[in-house]
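Reviewer 2 asked us to include a model.

Predict the structure of this chain.
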Amino acid sequence: MTRFLLTRLVLLLVGLLAASALIFFTIRVLPGDVAQVIAGTDATPEAVAAIRERLGLGQPVLLQYLDWIGGLLRGDLGNSLVTGTPVASELAEKAQVTVPLGLMALVIALAFSVPLGVLAAVRRTRATGTIISFASQGLAAVPVVWAGMMLVLLFAVVLGWLPAQGFPRAGWNDPLAAIRSLLLPALTIGVVEGAVLLRFVRSAALDAIGQDYVRTAAAKGLTRSQALVRHGLPNVALSVVTVLGLQIAGLIVGSVIIEQLFTLPGIGRMLVADVGNRDLVKVQGELLVLTGVVLVIGAVVDVVHRLADPRLRERERAA
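Predicted model (structure tokens):
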């Protein structure tokens, strides 16, 4: 197990280093001049050149990359080229919107995808299973923006139950208003991502139903549903944990789009604005943090999967 953890840690660090290089050099090929953006459209070439020199933009790209990596090793994501504020502090502020939004979307997705996925597998030959399967296929194909617009039309415009846009000025000092403002965005992401997860749960449950231990339990007097719940759900849970690692990436991408649609002051909306402003330091810091979250969650899923499934440990010992 120790060797596995060390190997996974090394792979995580290599992945982060590769991601940092890809993000840094990709951003440098974007069109536009950040010095010109800061100086304004009426600035003289001398003023623009002075800003470029002050920000170190005239240095070789490789040297800029090494300086950035050195800062990261000290826990410094740098300062915004436009506002001069530390990137880490702005990320921490915006995360107060993005992180709760992602967690709420994850809870919503799990709340309906797991029970309905199991139900669709148990009743696969009945109308209930067929309806759930077709509904999940349809929802999984729905673009998240269109789903958000339909939910706004229903819950904000027609019923008037929830706010359509924005986040309270008081933030989490007014928790009820903050939760109400995040409910529709979270429901939008949760429904679409949950429909995808439901299909994986159904597939895993169908596989478990066909296993000998479930058939044996059914032969001893349990119904097929009881046998699946008592003996098959641990294997279904392993599949769900594995897929959740992939779903987190979908949640992050979905939050970037949804924050724009619902005008939420989160990391996704800040990222889009910073790309437009050519604030290179902020953009590369934001992208690296988001990528790091996905990589860390993937590593955690691998470790959890290995701890929960003894077959993987036995396979390694045999090798």
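The first helix runs from residue 2 to 28. The chain is about 80% helix and 0% strand. We have added this to the supplementary material.
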